[in-house]
Amino acid sequence: MNTASSIIGRVSALFSSVISSLLPGTQSSLLLLRSSETSVHDERDFDTILQTRRTINSFKEDLPENADEIIDKAIRSAIYAPNHNRTEPWKFHLLGPKTIRKVCELNAEIVSKKKGEKAGQRKLERWLQMPGWIVVSCRTDYKDDKEILSMDVENSLSREDYAACCCAVQNLCLSIHNSGMGTKWGTGAVNFDEKFREILGFEENEYSIGILWFGTPAKIPEAPTKKKSVPDVIVRHD
């Protein structure tokens, strides 16, 4: 822990001790809870978490023992994504071995048709090595909401729901990264295949935002060189 974090930790502990001695149990607990919430990122600066996340292409074979806990926490973070009209359109499909095998075989079939059987077999072997799988989907259903029905659904809310789900995926990836694992978000052709929908049991108005692989990174890529600097992407208006 760096010096700044160490100082913050000691101050927080001293504050907790003083509050506990001065206030009744309930008030003390509430204040301590708020104190702990504000110090979540003492050890890892939030911007550092954002900037050190990488797309992981190779994972260790086994998931950590606390993987389920990490994923539950990550999904709780994911559903706090910005969401206009509070439609909460996201679903998180956690895939087990049987479903993973079906998806991998379907993807290999798709690849084989385009690039040949050898390419399909290589893809099958690679995909089967991925330790953890989440499929994030978006469900758009406005039948019971008169206010939403009065809007241009195709050009407005459907896009907003998709954007909200993409924000949820980013939250998911960042939370998993902060817990010591890594992710890769894939949006290949298999996501849009009707058989994929059947395998996942999608509802009528549900579609895939992508497949998210997760696990302990076997190798962490170097930071990519950005083609544009911050001044290059800023447009200032009077």
Task: Give structural notes.
By secondary structure, the chain is α+β, with helices and mostly antiparallel strands. The protein has 2 domains: 3-38; 47-215, NADH Oxidase, CATH 3.40.109.10. 50% of the residues lie in helices and 12% in strands. It has 10 helices and 4 strands; from the N terminus they run H-H-H-H-E-H-H-E-H-H-E-H-E-H. It has helices spanning 3-22, 25-38, 46-52, 67-78, 97-115, 117-127, 146-149, 157-178, 194-200, 230-233, and strands at residues 90-94, 132-139, 182-186, 206-215.
Give the helices and strands, then pairings.
Elements: H1 3-22, H2 25-38, H3 46-52, H4 67-78, E1 90-94, H5 97-115, H6 117-127, E2 132-139, H7 146-149, H8 157-178, E3 182-186, H9 194-200, E4 206-215, H10 230-233
Antiparallel strand pairs: 1-2, 2-4, 3-4
Helix pairs in contact: 1-2, 4-8, 5-6, 5-9
CATH architecture of the largest domain: 3-Layer(aba) Sandwich
Mean pLDDT: 83
Name the structural class.
alpha+beta
Number of strands: 4
Quote the CATH topology of the largest domain. Answer: NADH Oxidase
**Total number of helices:** 10
Distance between the termini: 44 Å
Q: What is the approximate shape?
A: globular
List the domain count as a whole number.
2
CATH class of the largest domain: Alpha Beta
Spans of 5+ residues with little confidence (pLDDT < 50)? 1-8, 22-41, 144-151
Rg, nearest Å: 22 Å
How many strands, which pairing sense, and closed or not: the largest β-sheet?
4 strands, antiparallel
Domain Nitroreductase: 51-215
Keywords: Flavoprotein, FMN, NAD, NADP, Oxidoreductase
Protein name: Nitroreductase
Pfam families: Nitroreductase
